[in-house]
Amino acid sequence: MINKRNYKKYFSILIIIIIISSFTIFLISFEYTINLQKYSNKIDNELDNAIDELMKSKNDLDHNNTKLKELLLGDKFNLRDPLYEEVESFINQDNSSTIKEKIKNAKNQGLNCSLVEILMGEDLKLYQLIGFNTVDKGMKYYELKTNYKVFPEIGKSYVQCVFDKDGKNPYFRNFNDTIVNIIVIW
Amino acid sequence: MKIRLTEKEISIIKNEIRVTIFDNQEISNKINFLRNSTKYQKYNPTYEQAIEFIRNDSTNNNSYLYDKYNCVYFSKDVNNNAEKQNISCAYLRLNLKGNEPHALVAFNTTDKGIIFIEPQTDEIVNLQIGKDYWAECLTSSFENYKSNEKNIIVSYILYW
Fold first, then answer.
1. Are residues B86 and B23 in the same domain?
2. How much is the pTM?
3. pLDDT tier at A76 (50, 70, 90 boundaries)?
4. B80 and B55 share a domain?
5. B79 lies in some domain
6. Domain count, chain B
7. Tally of helices (H runs) and strands (E runs) in chain A
8. Given Cys at both, which of A13, A124, A150, B88 links B42, Cβ 3.0 to 4.6 Å?
9. Distance (Å, rounded) from C-alpha A183 to C-alpha A56?
């Protein structure tokens, strides 16, 4: 049987254990709270930096978009050599039935372009294209109705210079189509 | 009050920043290309300016070679020389009744309307459909030219 003296002893030990445990729990939770606060501050700082950077980038983007729009403006009297991307976009959207109309439409949008006359074979058969001197990819030539890209070279067969969207030659040669000259009329 | 975000959300924002910076770079590149590109401020000349340009242009002194330097080349050169000086000029393709098409140039003058110029002789052409181009439309240089039905103008196309 536990006597009164022993009981007191055990009770004191228990109290000490409870005090130590409570203190330890307090310390751990305090440490945890401090760490959580530190982590939270770090996240807040990162977030602030990220938002600042995002705002700056978005402002730059807006500013540059405005500049780009200004540079893209034009009409038939205010022309400029276009970007390749603009030419592709124009070619894919324009449904002109004649080269004359296509040139007119491009120029009305401020895109400088040329009438290109390809002379082929011994009888100098004429074929007309539209040409653009793009600022990023140099001269680009297109057929009127098919929108095929043409890379004309003197001495080469015309059909070998034409490429469809898949990069294949869409035509078969059935007459003397050797390119004799390429005439670019701005 | 600050909104607390998770690392995942911050990572989404960072990704958005990367995309924005990339877009911005792409647009900056386009701006640089366009800034460095040639700009053309074309204008329609007065009658006097057109005539002065033609007088000063020496393309008409070139020699005609049937296959190598014919009307197409004369017209191309005059047109491109005018355009280089920002003068709006049209290349004109003339369809004749029997003969091969002919090429000349035109200016839309601000005071006297469209004038047609024969680039081989620098003459002003009185262009009229249904008339013989050489015998009736080009009067001064070709006054002894015999009329030929094959040279009758059927139609023409102006490429501005």
1. no
2. 0.77
3. confident
4. yes
5. yes
6. 2
7. 3, 7
8. B88
9. 49
In terms of residues, how long is chain A? Answer: 186
The number of C-beta contacts closer than 8 angstroms across A and B is 103
| Residue B155, in any domain of the structure | yes
Q: Do B14 and A50 touch, CB atoms closer than 8 A?
A: yes
My answer on whether B60 and B139 are in the same domain is: yes
B53: left (phi over 0), alpha (psi -120 to 50) or beta: alpha
A129: tokens are 């294209």
B32 with B54, same domain: the answer is: no
Q: Is B2 on the interface with A (CB under 8 A)?
A: yes
- Is B3 contained in some domain? no
Q: Which residue of A has its CA nearest to B88?
A: A77
**8-state DSSP, B58:** -
Determine whether the interchain pair B7/A186 forms a contact, defined as Cβ–Cβ distance below 8 Å. Answer: no
Confidence label for A123 from pLDDT (cuts 50, 70 and 90): confident
Euclidean distance between CA atoms A146 and A142, whole angstroms: 8
Q: Do residue B17 and residue A50 have CB atoms under 8 angstroms apart?
A: yes
Q: What is the pLDDT of residue B61?
A: 94
Instruction: Give alpha helix (H) positions in B57-117.
Output: 71-84
Please report residues of B whose CB lies closer than 8 A to that of A104.
Answer: 160
What is the CATH number for B92? Answer: 3.30.460.70
Domain boundaries, chain A: 1-72, 84-185
- pLDDT at position B3 is 60
Residue found by looking up tokens 């094959």 in the block? B150
**One domain for residues B86 and B21:** no
Nearest CA in chain B to A123: B67
Q: How confident is the model at residue A107 (pLDDT cuts 50, 70, 90)?
A: very high
The answer to whether the CB atoms of B34 and A68 lie below 8 A apart is yes
When scoring B9, B30, B80 by the number of chain A Cβ atoms within 10 A, the one with the most, hence best to mutate, is B30
Write out chain A residues lying below 8 Å of B95, CB-based: none
